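Example record

Each entry pairs one chain with its bound ligand, copper (II) ion.
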Amino acid sequence: MKQRMVFTENERRRFLKLAGYGTLGLISGAIWPLLNCASAERISKTVPDETFLPDLDLTLTARPGEAAVFPGIPTRVWRYHATLHKGDANRVLEMPDGYLGPIIKAHRGERIRIRFDNAIPEPSIVHWHGLHVPAVMDGHPRDVIPQGRSYLYEFTIKNRAGTYWFHPHPHGRTGSQVYRGLAGLFLVSDDEERAAGLPDGKYDVPLVIQDRSFGPDNQLLYLSGHMMERMTGFLGDRILVNGLPDFALPVSAGAYRLRLLNGSNARIYRLAWEDGRPLIVIGTDGGLLERPVIRRYAFLGPGERLEIWADFSDRPVGFKTALISLPFDPGGMGGGRMGRGMMMGGRMGFNPRLPDGAGFAVFKIHVTKRGKKNGSLPEKLAEMKLPRLDEAVNLSHPRRFYLLMQRMQWSINGRVFQMEDVAADEMVQLGSKEIWEFHNTGGGMMGMMHMPHPIHLHGKPFRVIERRGVTHGGYVDEGWKDTVLLMPGESIRIWVDFDDYPGMFLYHCHNLEREDMGMMRNYFVKS
Ligand code: C2O
Ligand code: CU
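Structure tokens for the complex follow.
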């Protein structure tokens, strides 16, 4: 009998299972046979690899707990705790105040083993935001584990020195789990960074910026249930830094390296110094820039990082300043015939107490001690070659991704997230350099919403090679990035080198409510 070439969904699943692709199910019909020759081995590891000798070995546990965010009643949170098994004790620092998880420090080239223990009453998985790790180590939502189980991560640090972070990534629950407190920092160092001679020790300060809302009992309030809130993303009315409200950083009169992470679910900051001094930016998502750049203000979208040089050495004891977020126009309902005012003021309007684009203080700085001159701003920070565009395999026909809103659903090219779904135009050849374009240009359709989107790529850091349609300014596109903010009307082109690690990775909007609603897709690197 002739072999049938048309598979039913069940047969296809069974076939993929036999072929070693686990539960790969919903791959788009058009391309799934391609995977037969891809080495997409999926091994959920629980047993340590005997031949993997870690420099740092720890257990990271997510569990319910309490944090003294305000005086009085403690706030119920979920948080990460670390237990170190091997490695230098000062490489894993718990953040004692607030609710944030530990700061893990590693040097480029080191091998890291982390056992993630899930002790929260929901499935979860950890994603190492910005780290270039194999697909099975990346914390894809299909790798979630239930309460009481663990997931073993083993990877080598291949990234440049920089401020990376980690957070949960279960589909549909990332927003709420991060909101409850699950997030920590992963600081990578390397020899090049060391040679730059930047302020270190207590002059190197990580600052995680988030917004939250609290009830009168000091407990966290999340989504109100208003449909519009999921479209815009959750906006809290309190600004927290390192898990604490009304944050003030005491400094000595010296030079500081401030590492800022926007760990908010949806809020965008337009950062500036209160006294109008320019920001001296030395690094972004993927570490140090080639040389410092000066900005009057800088946008920081959810997931992005910015490293700032702040020199207080000529300031007297008692000097006070603040990092503020300047007001800006975040767009909104406004495409087509639906006037913004009509929508916002009308039945569908949703008004958070601290709206997107409002101005406020992020944290204060007090010079409390006399200091000494502890270094001056280096002219050159790092070596950074411009990407060779002519090496890109698709220079003449870049991949195009349109950020769209249709029928009250955010999408990328009209598609929403499906756990195992990869479309034909989401297949990438291992070893190729590519140009990807993201367009936040909307259309004129009725019901269109035009909003900013922070776009994040898993797997590989990238370079922004072009940005169009800019009306605001305030971007630092010079360095290596893994998350990039697109204001309404903007388009960007990025350059990515898929030089290693085959398998399935994500790209998505890092507004966590939109990500949870499906503004996320897989791409697949085939070998
Ligand atoms: Cu910071 Cu896919 O995440
Ligand atoms: Cu978005």
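The longest strand covers residues 56-67.
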